[in-house]
Design goal:
By secondary structure, the protein is an alpha+beta fold. The protein has one domain: D-amino Acid Aminotransferase, Chain A, domain 1, CATH 3.30.470.160. The protein has 14 helices and 16 strands. Strand 2 and strand 3 form a beta hairpin. This is Kinase. Belongs to the inositol phosphokinase (IPK) family. One of its GO terms (cellular component) is cytoplasm.
Length: 424
Amino acid sequence: MSPAFGAMEVEHYSKGVLLEPFVHQVGGHSCVLRFNDKTICKPLIQREHQFYETLPTEMRKFTPQYEGVVSVSFEEDEDGNLCLIAYPLTGDHDNVENLDNSDCEPKSKLLRWTNKKTMLLENEKISKEWVRQHRKEEKMKSHKLEEEFEWLKKSEVLYYTVEKKGNVSSQFKHHNPWSMKCHQQQLQRMKENAKQRNQYKFILLENLTSRYEVPCVLDLKMGTRQHGDDASEEKKANQIRKCQQSTSAVIGVRVCGMQVYQAGTGQLMFMNKYHGRKLSVQGFKEALFQFFHNGKYLRRELFESVIKKLTELKSVLEKQESYRFYSSSLLIIYDGKERQEVAVDSDPEDLEDLSEESSDESAGAYAYKPTASTVDVRMIDFAHTTCKYYGEDSVVHEGQDTGYVFGLQNLIDIIKEIRDESSE
């Protein structure tokens, strides 16, 4: 989302935005919702909000852009459908712990709404007809999908065949079981608390998948330790056990979720965190190989870019005094849409005119290489992050987060191994 809305978008949002599941969520337990094409939102956790408000400048390129805070409520229509609606924050009572965000980018440009009482009344009178109409449009496909998700959620690794008709990117929007699981759990929690509470604060973040037609997403749980300093003894023991029984303790990283488009079969492959916990170090390496393989060939053109970005992130984190990113994840994202192959000696001006058909027909006459692809590397999930600047924390750590850095280095080494072995 650009920092500023257009006039029509502001008017629309003042009446509420119907939130939907963010279908590219592959891991985590917190519900992530789609605000619009370029923005997602998730329940506000004070510690994570503080992290984004005080984020060191050098880390900003490795985290989603923070875009503000919204108020979220939910309604239940006559058919029992729960709808989550986002509104702009209004009034002093909605300030989040009175945190000063004067130095925060984008300096609340996103949330420039009036606090006039007239708008408050308009918010409260959000059109149920508007919500009902939207739900009606989604209803037919939702019923079918909910039935499918009941068995999809039971599988740790699954392949879902995309229908041949229609655009791959549009088909891709409806089949991620993990996002639906988190969405349904969030709705259930809010419904159970309805009598005590119907207003929640959510933070708005950049949608990292928005520039990809068919996003392939790898969610990696980073570090050798996952529990926060404030964890109960039971939680601490549970997290330590998960680390010891997975690759986290050995190499400081484990698979928390994955979605990959298999161009060879026209299928979507999903892997959830339960399978990721069971992987050995060799299994982890094979999962990484699978992430970079589209079912037809290995996406070798991605390796140098992802290695460069991971190495740069490692250098940045080595300089972060006292930060600990407990239970944080690292996302690696690229576009699963097949990239056109072009002749090595092609003139750059001619490359845009090459179609897949002409490329295939000419394969015997020229040497070809994949066109450049973009890959993104970002840190997410900071609910248990701590540093010495958080004055209320009872534990103050010194130096870098060695567990996270250790995991990054091993990740870099394993990707290099895959790259070198595939080129032999």
